[in-house]
Amino acid sequence: MTTVSPSDQSARVFFLGTPSHPVALDRWTALQEQLGASGVETTTDLDGEIDYAIVHEDILDGYCSVAEALALQKLRARGITCASSCAGPEQILAALAAASSEFAPVVPISTAKGRIFGRSVRSAV
Predict the structure, then answer these.
(1) What is the 8-class DSSP label of residue 109?
(2) What is the spatial distance between Cα 41 and Cα 65, in angstroms, rounded to a whole number?
């Protein structure tokens, strides 16, 4: 795995949700460990500075508690890029590096489709 240093400061990635399926939980945990090994701080605390968010697919699909929906809404209101755990550590590190270099953030394809679709729906209403 190639590591990319997002900046001199430690980037902070927020994880929202917890997978219930054992294979998905293993991937979720491995993603947190890989980011931690690359010098990225992972958190489940919404307070403070957050650079990126990994959100469980069920929450992105709307299958979530009120608290999870509100947390997702707060992330989006703060302009924080949210991606599913399908985004690999390399994509996340590249997005963090690009954001810290004042370039447009790299958005995983699954997230970009949702943003384009959402914009189309809002403009149609």
Answers:
(1) H
(2) 25
Predicted confidence (pLDDT) per residue in 94-120, tens digit:
877 777 654 344 444 454 444 444 444
Give me the half-sphere count of Cα atoms (radius 13 Å) on the Cβ side of residue 29: 8
What is d(CA 101, CA 103) in angstroms, rounded to the nearest whole number? 6
Identify the segments of the chain with pLDDT beneath 50.
1-8, 102-109, 111-125
Three-state secondary-structure class, residue 117? helix
With both helix axes pointing from N to C terminus, report the angle between 89-100 and 22-37 in degrees, rounded to the nearest 10.
40
For residue 95, how many other CB atoms are within 10 A of its CB? 26
